[in-house]
């Protein structure tokens, strides 16, 4: 059975109406009462439901209750209450959030198919296909094994079961909330196991579905079980302030006066933070004040009133502009809309303010539950492959469903699921065509390309961010405008480097699948290092002579060994690069930059690195002649070579050698080996090259380049 124990003394703040389970149990077994009336046990649920839906048909609830009570009769929970108290409590939770009648009917029956002789066919015959579908989905969830070894495959099944109808997950969340409220009679180790699953999967899903009322109470209950000391400290801190004057009440009174004077009809409420929220604020700010224990909530009638309230607050109080966020113009990924700001309240303390309409508040509290039946529209078409068209399904859920179809490996899918659920912030990027793209914070242009074009993003060759050319690795910020540049070459595809820039599972999965079907030719192996002295070679280029600038020193070598030390031509190290060396034929130590690919090949082949470092001379560190190789990535255009060499000459650098690769996918790579009189000018030179129109990246070269002799 899904509900195993009852203890009405569970720790944590309690939200909404609570019912006496013992009284409810007696009422559940006492029959229907007077003719024509609902049974006493379901009557309270019906009253709450009618408050949200005055015209609701209660006959179906009556029939569902009768079937559930008769089916569960004789079953008890571990605490001794009749088992029917559990589906009743789950249904009441959903009724308080404004769930529609079909959801409440399914919640009353959610354990009947799993725990009694009732079949899905019977549910369909008596209550219709919608209720049968929801009961079947919740039953599948109840069969999920939450053991660690089973996680990848069982959570894939869970997503498939719930993704077709978000109401399935709503019932599951309410079911878990009631079980968490009544968990303390369980063994501590079982409490911890259930709490961890709730923390890792169900709370993030509640956040994604926007059901804040369930999410916050679940957080407090999990907090009490997994972190009892921090929970007790936070609870004691909140209780210690309970009897003191609340500075937010005085600020709320001032805000009400301002709104009355401005003629704005609004309700101002002091909204207390739940325990986990207080704990997070304490970790962020250190010492807390009384105003940190809550926020002001202003509820108005229309969207325009929200901005009118904002204007009055910023005019009549001192605002903290850095705290302002507009989630009305750009809603969050979980349907949340509100204006956030902060003002200086009574005594100068910071008072955070949330401004929203009554409808926004319902959605903020109940998320998708507040949106009713997504299939009520008569012409709602079915989606391909049996997936229902759900107008309330958030974009993140559709992405997860796509990933589970595209990823046959359950471990890869589990990683994708955990990565997605771990994201606690999303950015909105505006497309050049006027649309928007929602992405997890930290996403790059690569992620945006796959979010917009899917598999078509394989042909992306560049981007403009806020009107300026940018690399595909550029991290996008909230509010950026993005124009993706696509290649006309159908044979073009992603580079393996894209995997380093991709943050979203959708992008990583698509890139990995393309690379797997388009294997690249392996790079030619480096020639083996000689083991015996060979014929004399031309004199190696040494580091700057003593007295001219920094020199490379072999650790333990007793000082500069310029005649036996040379800079590698493949990566051309200069101070202050991190360097390492390898002894080659003739006893010469070749110095490479630490990230140079040759270093990895040397180590793999068994060559022992030699420790080297830079040492400045006493009369002019940073001066002297240094050779460095730069690689410029750009879009192909006329006169690009001339413009780049002009910038190089203006910086006082001499071009030792230059190579321009043939254009590929409208991109071109320039490689320059330069002579610098002052290594300190290198960053400035690279910035100047990046400013050349068409150039989107300039970096130190990390592959072999044959430099011209000096």
Question: Please, could you describe this protein's structure?
Answer:
With 710 residues, this protein is of the alpha+beta class. It has 25 helices and 19 strands. Strands 1-2-5-4-3 form a five-stranded mixed sheet. Helix 11 packs antiparallel against helix 12 (212-226) and helix 13 (228-242) crosses helix 15. It is elongated and about 95 Å long. Mean pLDDT is 75; it is low at 1-37, 145-152, 377-393, 521-550, 558-563, 617-623 and 703-710.
Question: What secondary-structure arrangement, pairings included, does this model have?
Answer:
Blueprint: H1 21-29, H2 40-52, H3 59-72, H4 85-96, H5 101-108, H6 112-115, H7 120-127, H8 129-142, H9 151-163, H10 166-181, H11 188-208, H12 212-226, H13 228-242, H14 247-262, E1 267-272, H15 275-285, E2 294-300, H16 303-316, E3 325-326, E4 339-344, E5 350-357, H17 358-366, H18 395-406, H19 410-422, E6 426-431, E7 436-440, H20 445-453, E8 460-465, E9 468-470, E10 481-486, H21 498-501, H22 505-517, E11 551-554, E12 565-567, E13 579-583, E14 589-593, H23 597-604, E15 612-615, E16 623-635, H24 640-650, E17 654-660, E18 667-678, H25 682-690, E19 695-700
Parallel strand pairs: 2-5, 6-10, 12-14
Antiparallel strand pairs: 1-2, 3-4, 4-5, 6-7, 8-9, 8-10, 11-15, 13-14, 16-18, 16-19, 17-18
Helix pairs in contact: 2-4, 3-5, 4-5, 4-10, 5-8, 7-8, 8-9, 8-10, 9-18, 9-19, 10-11, 10-12, 11-12, 12-13, 13-15, 14-16, 18-19, 20-22
């Amino acid at each position: 059975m899904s509900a195993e124990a009852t203890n009405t003394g569970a720790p944590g703040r309690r939200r909404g109406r609570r019912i006496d389970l013992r009284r409810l149990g007696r009422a559940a077994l006492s029959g229907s009462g007077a003719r024509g009336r609902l049974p006493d046990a379901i009557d309270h649920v019906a009253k709450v439901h009618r408050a949200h839906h005055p015209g609701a048909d209660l006959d179906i609830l009556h029939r569902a209750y009768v079937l559930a009570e008769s089916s569960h009769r004789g079953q008890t929970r571990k605490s001794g209450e009749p088992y029917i108290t559990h589906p009743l409590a789950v249904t009441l939770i959903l009724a308080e959030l404004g769930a529609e009648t079909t959801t409440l009917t399914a919640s009353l029956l959610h354990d009947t198919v799993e725990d009694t002789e009732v079949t899905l066919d019977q549910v369909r015959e008596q209550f219709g296909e919608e209720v049968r579908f929801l009961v079947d989905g919740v039953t599948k969830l109840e069969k999920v094994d939450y053991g660690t070894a089973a996680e990848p495959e069982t959570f894939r099944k869970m997503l498939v079961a719930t993704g077709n109808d978000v109401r399935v997950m709503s019932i599951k969340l309410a079911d878990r909330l009631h079980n968490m409220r009544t968990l303390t009679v369980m063994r501590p180790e079982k409490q911890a196991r259930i709490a961890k699953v709730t923390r890792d999967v169900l709370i993030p899903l509640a956040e994604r579905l926007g059901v804040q009322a369930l999410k916050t109470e679940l957080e407090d209950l999990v907090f009490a079980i997994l972190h009892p000391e921090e929970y007790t400290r936070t609870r004691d801190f909140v209780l210690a302030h309970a009897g003191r004057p609340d500075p937010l009440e005085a600020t709320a009174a001032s805000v009400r006066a301002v709104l009355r004077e401005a003629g704005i009809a609004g309700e101002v409420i002091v909204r207390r933070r739940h325990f986990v929220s207080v704990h997070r604020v304490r970790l962020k700010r250190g010492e807390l004040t009384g105003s940190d224990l809550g926020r002001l909530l202003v509820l108005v009638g229309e969207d325009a009133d929200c901005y009118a309230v904002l204007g009055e607050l910023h005019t009549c109080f001192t605002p903290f502009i850095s705290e302002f966020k507009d989630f009305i113009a750009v809603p969050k990924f979980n349907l949340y809309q509100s204006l956030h700001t902060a003002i200086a309240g009574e005594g100068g303390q910071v008072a955070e303010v949330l401004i929203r309409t009554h409808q926004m508040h319902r959605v903020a509290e109940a998320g998708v539950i507040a949106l009713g039946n997504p299939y009520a529209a008569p012409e709602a078409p079915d989606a391909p492959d049996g997936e229902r068209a759900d107008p309330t399904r958030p974009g993140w859920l559709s992405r997860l469903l796509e990933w589970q179809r595209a990823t046959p490996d359950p471990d890869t899918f589990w990683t994708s699921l955990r990565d997605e659920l771990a994201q606690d912030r999303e950015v909105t990027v505006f497309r050049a065509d006027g649309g928007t793209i929602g992405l997890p914070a930290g996403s790059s242009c690569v992620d945006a390309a796959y979010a917009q074009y899917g598999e078509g993003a394989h042909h992306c060759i560049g981007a403009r961010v806020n009107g300026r050319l940018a690399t595909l690795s550029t991290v996008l910020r909230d509010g950026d405008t993005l124009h993706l540049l696509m290649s006309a070459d159908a044979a073009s595809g992603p580079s393996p480097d894209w995997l380093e820039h991709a943050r979203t599972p959708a992008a990583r999965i698509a890139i990995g699948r393309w690379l797997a079907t388009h294997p690249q030719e392996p790079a030619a192996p480096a020639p083996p290092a000689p083991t015996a002295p060979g014929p004399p070679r031309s004199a190696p280029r040494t580091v700057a002579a003593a007295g001219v600038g920094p020199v490379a020193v072999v650790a333990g070598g007793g000082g500069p060994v310029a005649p036996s030390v040379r800079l590698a031509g493949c990566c051309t190290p200069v101070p202050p690069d991190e360097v390492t060396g390898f002894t080659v034929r003739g006893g010469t130590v070749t110095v490479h930059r630490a990230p140079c690919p040759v270093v990895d090949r040397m180590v793999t082949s068994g060559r022992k690195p030699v420790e080297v470092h830079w040492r400045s001379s006493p009369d002019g560190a940073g001066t002297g002649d240094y050779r460095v190789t730069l690689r410029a990535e750009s879009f192909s255009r006329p006169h690009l070579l001339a413009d780049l060499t002009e910038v190089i000459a203006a910086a006082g650098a001499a071009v030792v050698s230059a190579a321009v690769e043939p254009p590929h996918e409208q991109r071109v790579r320039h490689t320059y080996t330069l002579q610098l009189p002052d290594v300190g000018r290198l960053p400035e030179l690279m910035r100047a090259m990046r400013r050349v129109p068409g150039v989107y990246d300039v970096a130190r070269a990390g592959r072999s380049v044959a430099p011209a002799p000096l």
